[in-house]
Amino acid sequence: LYRKLNLFYNFFKPIWEQMKVSELLKKEFIIPELNGETKEEVINELIDLFKDDHRVDDIEKVRSAVLDREKIMSTGVGKGFAIPHGKTSAVKEIIGAFGKIKDGIDYQSLDGNPVQLVFLLVGKDTLISTHIKLLSRISRLMNKDDFRHRLIEANSADDIVKLFSDEEEHFLEL
Question: Which has more pLDDT, 170 or 98?
């Protein structure tokens, strides 16, 4: 009976409660050392990871959604972190990528500091609440100085995936 109730609960549980950053982020969508020297180059480098992804119907619409959002206001939120994001009908589900920039770049961040850590999030335009919840979760994770420092020190995509997974394991929900 417990097993059936648990299956029933998980089936009807809202998707945003089920989705974790560590479930979204896979090692093939992580670049431990980005090559871009501008925010546009970095964003494009992360978007290009999805060129042959079956979840993306039109990579150029994804690119436009993210870059158009960036024109409204910089997604360099401070403390060396940026979260470029956008919503579009050109994806079948929410996708994410992560990259590091060794020496940081000028990203027109809110605090004026260079960005070293970039988390790209592209949401399906019909999953707005899930998109917002993930943005919030990513921001709260990245607000932790120790976590950001460990990400900067990580050497591989596997290390980065493990850091996100371990951090979320100890993460308290709102």
Answer: 98
DSSP conformation class of 91? B
26/24 Cα distance (integer angstroms): 6
Residue 18 has a pLDDT of 54
Tokens at residue 79, please?
């403390």
**Which helix (H) or strand (E) is 95 found in, with range?**
strand 95-105
Burial 33-69 (b: 16+ CB within 10 A, else e): ebebeebeebbebbbebbeeeeebeebebbbebbbeb
d(CA 28, CA 156): 11
CA–CA–CA angle 67, 95, 7 (5° rounding): 150
Convert the pLDDT of each residue in 5-57 to its tens digit.
455 444 444 443 457 888 889 999 999 999 999 999 999 999 999 999 999 99
Q: What percent of the chain has pLDDT over 70?
A: 87
pTM of the model: 0.87
* Start-end of H helices in 13-156: 15-18, 21-24, 39-47, 59-72, 128-142, 145-153
Query: CA-to-CA distance for 145 and 79, rounded, in angstroms?
Result: 8
